[in-house]
Amino acid sequence: MLHRVWVWLAVVTVLTLSGCVNIPDSYAPPIQRKPLTAPQPGGLSHIINMNDPNVLAHIVRDISPNLEGGVFRWAYRRPEMRFALTSTTHLKFVMDFALPAANFEQTGPVTISFYVNDHLLDRVRYDTPGRKTFEKEVPAEWLRTDALTLVATEIDKMYVSPQDGTKLGFPIIRVGFIE
Amino acid sequence: MPHAFYILFGSTFAVAVCLSCGLLLLRGLRLHFYRGEERLLAFVTGAACLSTVVFILSALGLARKGAFLALGLAIIFAAARCGVFRPLGDDLPPLPRFWKILFGLVFTLYTVLYFFNAMAPEMSPDGSAYHLGFVAWYLREHGLVRITTNMYANLSQGIEMLYLFAFAFGRHSAAALVHFSFLAVLPFLMLSYAKRFGLPVAGAAAALLVYASPVVGKDGTTAYVDVAVAAIVFTLFYLLQIWDRERSMALFIPIGLVAGFAYAAKYTAFLAVPYALAFTSWKLYRARHNYWKPLVIISACALVMMLPWMAKNWIWVNNPFSPFFNRVFPNPYIHTGFEDDYSRAMQHYEGLKSYIDLPLELTVRGTALCGLFGPVFLLAPLALLSLRERVGRQLLLAGAVFGATYFCNIGTRFLIPAAPFFALAMMMVCSRAKAVPVMLVAFHAIFSWPPCIKIYSDARAWRLERILWKQALRIVPEDGYLNFKMPVYPITRVIEKMVPKGEKVFSFNQAAQSYTSREILVAYQSAFNNTLGEILWTPITEGYQPTRHLVFRFPPQPLRKVRATQTAEGKPDNWSIAEFRVFRGGVELPRVPQWRLRASPNPWEVQLAFDNSPVTRWRSWETLRPGMFVEIDFGKDEVVDTVRLECSRDQDKSRVKLEGQTTSGRWKLLAAAPEYVDLPSPLLGLRRAAAEEFKARGVRYILAWDSDYAATDLRTRTATWGITMLAERGGARLYRID
After folding, report:
1. Contact by Cβ (8 Å): B619, B575
2. Distance CA B99, CA B120 (A)
3. B68 — alpha (psi -120 to 50), left (phi > 0) or beta?
4. Nearby residues of B539 by Cβ (< 8 Å), 6 or more positions away
5. Do residues B44 and B22 lie in contact, with contact meaning Cβ atoms separated by under 8 Å?
6. B610 touches chain A (CB under 8 A)
7. Are B649 and B513 in contact (CB under 8 A)?
């Protein structure tokens, strides 16, 4: 009698519970979102690290072709780069760079001017050496998506090497636009 | 004052109905108890019955004040007609006069403290968020609601059903007072048990130690459930001990019901059922009696209490034990990886540096584990000396059983169900010296009183602060008090006012869900919410962005299916794919409805790798292991020469190979490893894309606390996200997605 009760209980439980499981095995592709215009590998992008493979395509002038320490390149008097943008609103120009202490001892405080498509975005005086980040929103009307965007910086005092007289600006690490 | 009346009516009515149900059942079974213990056992047994009846009413869509009123009055009327309120039975052995006075004094003092705190506006984090959040929701909808976006909705809610009954009349505080009623019953249960088994002094002392314990008082005066669980498992123990002495078959019914009710009240009390079964079968086996029939009766009665919760979960979320065991019962509602993380988090509280600190944290400090029992409980190891006596062994066995799940969640309150057993065993030993229990009770009663606790506890220990009589009687208005004392309350009320009905609000933190009718989707509480959280974090977390492309090139060939398979193993990385693209001659194959997409694990979210959105991704939600895959069945042969997986960079250990199924149905390796191409990051346009994803999922509001990872970005880049800040209250900001 008891065995029968257990058997019935088990059968009813299994049937009841197994009927509830309905997990699809596969799915159709969903509704497609509007694709983001992301930079294409090898092409011009909106931001670039100095150790990225296609950085040379972004350099217009006054930046060393040699990568130093795996992360930065030396900039000279007026380094200039070009970028391809997919939108123009709410963008910030950003530049990660450094002011080496050894150079700073010679130059003292320096002032760097930042230009976007020949518009002066800002002019900043740096009183201390070390790693710096410049970040500032760019007016949308200065930017275009149908043409390349040129950015440039200009340092007021160059470092002159006592050994060979080479003139150096500052090491650049990353330049471009972020939201 | 009318509010106070409704609160008292709701809670008293619920308690009266529980008592009536229990008395009807126990008297109906012709069970005979001592005069003092019958009502206590009846209350808990009746609570089990009422809980299940409320569940059934709610399942039928009858969770209405009128239905509860009619039901309750009918039960009380039936009980009165049957004369069950007339006390029967002999008196229990008396307590010594001194102890009677001491017990009465301490109990009265703490009852005043607890009663007014329980009646004061409910502001406990979990009580106001989910215990009562669901209760309020069920009442609004007049029944149970299928909730797949909050794992707490899948926990058993046996006590919440009682709260629902009381809440219908007196709202939050009525529910908390129902919990308080279990708190008030617990010491009397302990005392009655002790009197019956010849330990009156130890029982009185232990009852006071538990009752005055700061964590017990704090928990039992809110809409939590731990003290109720303690009362339930102690009732089960008590009934089993009575059965062991009297061997009445009819006791198996309340034993089964109460054991099942323990599971219905809190998952961690599930051991009540095997404990009851093992206890009875062992006793019967040793007495050479048939133990099958008792086992069947106990099991059947326990299942009456348990099955409703299992069935509800199985039907609604494909897992009878949700939110746990998601690997055994795979479902789209809880990520297995989240379950692992959650379990780990519950076992290792952030503030606890080492398990060596546990005794002090549990008894004296009270911050890291949220609550303290009081320094007297540092003497708990003395309880081991009670092993010399049979009663002591029984108590310690029960304490060990109901404390066994403690390490699943090491919060102090998770020890409350085991505390009465250890306290009784401890006081059994201490009461051998006459003065010791008095001293311990006096010390504990003094140093558990709110102003005295802070002398030794951490400043932020979870405890009661004072008697809130003005708040309880609503002389201080509820809204004003909550605005002042409860950080999440003001923004919750703003949500109620500013968010249109039916809209959902996403948040990374729990809010006071019970004070708003708008659903708040908390990031960690379900798979759906996990995905929303990831979407929101992707624009501001470069490691989440799809900037690493895995390109597989192979000779053009017709294929029926392609499959990317994980070949690596390693923690803590998960595998994820933001987009899975297939090319022929440099042109991407359009994703047509005939395609069938599969993934393992987490098959339910495979579409996230095929939606063109850079802010969504299919994610394994498990650490890397070989054999995980994402697959496309083209439905016909397609000539293909390249596959590109657009992935995030937060999975360094991931290694993927590509396989294809040829027209003959044979699988072959297309590429053992991809070519890696990194894009510059961060990508542009992700914030707006994330906002669009929210809207596509029907979520148009975001609640961000200043301490949230995304808070600063949301606040400073509202235009980029495409959101508008609607309000700010106490460090929380409510945004609308435009």
Report:
1. yes
2. 31
3. alpha
4. A179, B545, B615, B682, B686, B687, B689, B690, B713, B721
5. yes
6. yes
7. no
Indicate whether B9 belongs to any domain: no
Stated pTM of the model: 0.90
Alpha-carbon distance B442 to B603, whole Å?
60
ipTM of the modeled complex:
0.82
Residues B282 and B424 in one domain: yes
In the predicted model, is pLDDT for residue A36 greater than 80? no
Phi, psi of A125 (to 5 degrees): -95, 130
Q: Residue B549: list chain A partners with CB under 8 A.
A: 41
- Hey, what amino acid is at B209? L
Same-domain check for residues B515 and B426: no
Tell me the CB-side half-sphere exposure of residue A137, using CA atoms within 13 A.
10
Domain identity same for B432 and B378: yes
| Structural domain count of chain A | 1
Phi and psi, residue B143, nearest 5°: 170, 180
CA distance B597 to B592: 11
Q: Which chain A positions have a beta carbon within 8 Å of B685's beta carbon?
A: 36-37, 86-87, 179
Shared domain for B366 and B510, answered yes or no, is no
Q: Is residue A151 assigned to a domain?
A: yes
Report the alpha-carbon distance of residue B285 to residue B274 in Å, rounded. Answer: 16
The proportion of chain B whose per-residue pLDDT surpasses 90, expressed as a percent, equals: 96
B684/A85 touch (CB, cutoff 8 Å), yes or no: yes
Whether pLDDT at B679 is above 90: no
Which chain A residue is nearest to residue B594, measuring alpha carbons? A28
Closest CA to B441 of B102, B190, B668: B102
Q: How far apart are CA B377 and CA B422, in angstroms?
A: 9
Examine the pLDDT at B584 and tell me if it is beyond 80.
Answer: yes
A39/B679 CB distance under 8 A? yes
Which chain B residue is nearest to residue A40, measuring alpha carbons?
B679
Instruction: Work out the minimum CA distance from A90 to partner chain B, whole angstroms.
Output: 6
Structurally, chain B folds into a number of domains equal to 3
Residue to test with chain B: of A6, A33, A51, A83, most B Cβ within 10 A: A33
Which residue range(s) make up the domain with A113?
Answer: 67-178
Task: Say which residue the tokens 């029968």 belong to.
Answer: A4
pLDDT classification of A52: cutoffs 50, 70, 90: confident
Identify the domain containing residue B724 by its residue range. 493-537+684-737
Contacts of residue A152, Cβ cutoff 8 Å, sequence gap at least 6: A78, A79, A80, A81, A114, A115, A118
CA A162 to chain centre: 35
CATH number for the domain harbouring residue A91: 2.60.120.260
| Maximum C-alpha span of chain B | 96
Q: Are B279 and B233 in contact (CB under 8 A)?
A: no
Work out the minimum CA distance from A43 to partner chain B, whole angstroms: 10
Q: Which of B18, B438, B440 is nearest to B235 (CA)?
A: B18
Judged by a CB distance cut-off of 8 A, whether residue B614 touches chain A is yes
Look at strands A73-83 and B587-588 and give their pairing.
unpaired
Dig out the tokens for B256 from the structure: 């089964």
Contact status, residue B646 vs residue A140, Cβ threshold 8 Å: no
For residues B699 and B566, membership in a common domain is answered with no
The single-letter DSSP state of residue A27 is B
Do residues B211 and B102 make contact, with C-beta atoms less than 8 angstroms apart?
no
- The first and second tokens of residue B676, run together, are 């890696």
